[in-house]
Design a protein that fits this description.
Elements lengths: L1 E10 L2 E11 L4 E5 L6 H9 L6 E6 L2 E2 L4 H7 E4 L11 H11 L4 H14 L15 H13 L5 E5 L7 H14 L4 E5 L3 H7 L2 E6 L2 E6 L12 H8 L11
C-alpha cells in the first residue's frame, strides 16, 4: 500500500534520499529509523506528495503520488515533522476544516471528530486555540487530523514527539490497534517504540537502506534494537545540514 520505487531527492549538490525502494503492506507497522540527517523526513514528504522526487516514484494504495494527487490525499493520513500552524483556530475548528477538505460533512464529520478526539485523549482541548496549545497537546491534535478520515495508509513522522510517558504508551497502543488493517510507516528516535509495536524495521543511513527486516532479526539477546542501530547507522552524521 506504500511503495517507494527508486526515490531520489537532492538539495543542491547534496543527495538526501538515494534510490530508495521499499514497500509497506496492509497490516504492517513499519518503523522507519535512522539518525538525524539520514533522510527519513524527506522520504516521508516524498511519499506524502509534499515534495517531488528528482528521480523515482511512489505509490499510495495503488495511486501514483504525483499523477493522482486527489486519490492519494483520500488514501493517506500524514503527520508532518514538528507540525504547526492554524494558530487562530480551535482544535475543533481545525479538525472540522481538515474533515471538510477530505469530503466529510454533517453528522459524519461530527462522528469522526468525536471518534478521533476520544482516541487521542483530546476531548478537553477541543475549544482551545491551536496557537495556545503545549507541544504535546498540539501533537495530539495533528495526530487526530491524520486519523480523521480513517485512511488505509498512515505516514507519521515522530507521532509521540512531545508527549509524556503515559500518552506515549497510549499512542503506541492506538497505533498497534489501527495498524491491523492499515499500512503504517512511522519514524521515531525512541527505539523502544519500534521494539514494542513494529512488525518491520527499515533503517536508513545517508539516504540508503541499510536494514529491512522484522524486529526479531535485528534485536539482541535482550530484545534491544540499539546495538544494531548503532552498528548500521552509527556513522551517519548527527544533524547533517538540514533534512532528516
Amino acid at each position: 500500500m506504500i511503495e517507494a520505487l527508486g526515490l531520489t531527492m537532492r538539495f543542491g549538490r547534496r543527495t538526501v534520499v538515494d534510490r530508495l525502494s521499499f514497500r509497506v503492506g496492509r497490516g504492517e507497522l513499519c518503523a522507519f529509523l535512522g539518525r538525524n540527517g539520514a533522510g527519513k523526513t524527506t522520504t516521508m514528504r516524498l511519499l506524502a506528495g509534499v515534495l517531488r522526487p528528482v528521480e523515482g516514484s511512489a505509490r499510495i494504495n495503488g495511486h501514483d503520488v504525483i499523477a493522482e494527487r486527489c486519490a492519494v490525499a483520500a488514501s493517506i493520513g500524514f503527520l508532518p515533522e514538528a507540525a504547526a500552524g492554524f494558530s487562530r483556530l480551535t482544535v475543533d475548528e481545525f479538525l472540522r476544516f481538515c474533515g471538510e477538505s477530505r469530503g466529510l460533512a454533517g453528522r459524519a464529520l461530527g462522528v469522526a471528530i468525536d471518534r478521533v478526539a476520544e482516541h487521542v485523549h483530546a476531548r478537553e482541548a477541543r475549544d482551545a486555540l491551536m496557537g495556545e496549545l503545549s507541544k504535546g497537546w498540539r501533537q495530539r491534535a495533528w495526530l487526530a487530523q491524520a486519523l480523521l478520515h480513517d485512511p488505509p495508509v498512515l505516514i507519521l513522522d515522530e507521532p509521540t514527539d512531545g508527549l509524556d510517558p503515559v500518552e506515549r504508551r497510549h499512542v503506541r497502543a492506538l497505533l498497534d490497534d489501527v495498524s491491523r488493517d492499515k499500512a503504517v510507516l512511522l519514524s521515531t528516535h525512541v527505539l523502544e517504540e519500534a521494539e514494542e509495536i513494529a512488525t518491520r524495521v527499515v533503517l536508513i543511513a545517508r539516504g540508503r537502506i541499510v536494514a529491512d527486516d522484522v524486529p526479531a532479526s535485528l534485536v539482541d539477546e535482550r530484545g534491544r534494537l540499539a546495538p544494531a542501530f548503532h552498528r548500521l547507522a552509527g556513522n551517519d552524521p548527527e544533524g547533517a545540514r538540514g533534512q532528516s
